[in-house]
Amino acid sequence: MGEHIAPAYPAGLENLTGLDAPASLGAWRNIHRAFPPVLRSRKTLHPTHDDPARRSALRPPDGRRLIPLHPVTVDEADLRALARVRRVVRAGAKAAPSVLVTRHADGSADIEGVASPGDCRGTVDRTVAVLTLTPDEDVETPATTFAPEHIDAGTRRVDLSAQEYAAYERFADRLAAAAMTGQFPGERAVFRNRY
């Protein structure tokens, strides 16, 4: 989201111990700034942008459009800070669940949804999983091909070789698994099918 928009502060985090909020927000700000502009924009969330490959210049050997991949380098200290946030949020979700059950003397029960750190647990888990994907030859070999200055809309068309496309496919498998951490296999398959 735009840097002028304050990040959402999940309910219940103010009660968690062990969370250095200024350092955590600083780490997220650093990571956010490391992303290329196309990944920081909220425009991709607009309904008219439901095809993530629209306007992509990245093409496999068969010529169709591929979703661009953008290599991002982030500071290891910032990743460690986010990993600490994940641990604290997980602990907070256990201590203060998002569902409050009130049992009555007559045996009935009221179930009420309440704001808690559990509301953001999945988002934090998936964010950390994606950002901590270990670079391997599938990332290093085509990294220059995937560089944002080559792939962003309005730049020259980039045709991947069969080897580069195979690397793209393998990395997309890893990316989908990380991005859908904690989700049902069917949802993971739908996400993966976009690449």
What can you tell me about this protein's structure?
- The chain has helices spanning 21-34, 37-40, 76-95, 121-131, 137-140, 148-151, 162-179, 185-193, and strands spanning 58-59, 99-103, 109-113, 158-159.
- Helix 1 packs across helix 3 and helix 3 packs antiparallel against helix 4 (121-131).
- With 195 residues, it is mainly alpha-helical.
- Helices cover 43% and strands 7% of the residues.
- The strands form 2 sheets. Strands 1-4 form a two-stranded parallel sheet. Strands 2-3 form a two-stranded antiparallel ribbon.
- Residues 150-154 have low confidence and may be disordered.
- The protein has 8 helices and 4 strands, in the order H-H-E-H-E-E-H-H-H-E-H-H.
- A hairpin with a 5-residue loop joins strand 2 and strand 3 (109-113).
Index terms:
mainly alpha; 7% strand; single chain; two-stranded antiparallel sheet; 195 residues; two-stranded parallel ribbon; elongated
Count of alpha/pi helices: 8
Strand pairing plus helix content: what structural class?
mainly alpha
Q: Give the strand order of the largest sheet, numbering strands 1, 2, ... along the chain.
A: 1-4
Mean pLDDT: 76
Distance, first to last CA: 23 Å
Mind summarizing the main beta sheet?
2 strands, parallel
Per DSSP E runs of 2 or more residues, the count of β-strands stands at 4
Rg over CA atoms: 20 Å
User: What string, H for helix and E for strand, traces the elements in order?
Assistant: HHEHEEHHHEHH
Contiguous low-pLDDT stretches (5 residues minimum) are 150-154
What is the helix content? 40-55%
Strand content: 5-15%
| Shape designation | elongated
